[in-house]
Amino acid sequence: MTDMTAETVEPGTGRAVLRDLRAVDGAVYAAVAATPTPTLDTALRRLSTAANHSKISFAAAAALALVPGRPRRAALAGLGAIAVASASANLLGKRLVRRQRPDREAARVAVSRHVPMPDSASFPSGHTASAVAFAAAVGAVLPGVGVPLGALAGAVGYSRVHTGVHYPGDVAAGAVLGVASAGVSLAAVTWVTAGER
After folding, report:
1. What confidence tens digit (pLDDT) does each residue in 180-194 have?
2. pTM, entire model
3. Are the beta carbons of 54 and 162 closer than 8 angstroms?
4. Which string of b and e fits 35-52 if b means at least 16 CB within 10 Å?
């Protein structure tokens, strides 16, 4: 049995792993593009568009904010999480990584799925980051609402791959960023509301 130590690992292994992960990412993207789903295409295209600028989350937050107590606190936490996720994804992540958007035409993504291709970098998915951040933050305050919001956030993330504007890895990174953003927002809301008691 060979002892695998840090000294025996070949230089560039990190780059090789990254290359392999990109290959898997591209293969999953291509598989989604090649799978005919005519009954889902319109619904997922509309969902992806409805999630622009976190419109779905803002509508849910507005409804929650009408109810005093925990629902209003959940709305505040959710909005804070969106702010952190959006800033982190768009002002930091996309500018640091600068991954190009997928070539939707080369992958032959059905035209019936198309939404406008954003001009921004591909990594991470801002739509996913914001949707997951909102769902995680609201769900932590109101657990009963967390499951449907989490399912909706997952659907938003998948819709970005389905419509051809993101690789699956972009969406996965956005989800991780969303969970982290929810944690930051929840800590801030806890600190603010503790001072009000």
Report:
1. 999 999 999 888 877
2. 0.90
3. no
4. eeeeeebeebbebbeebe
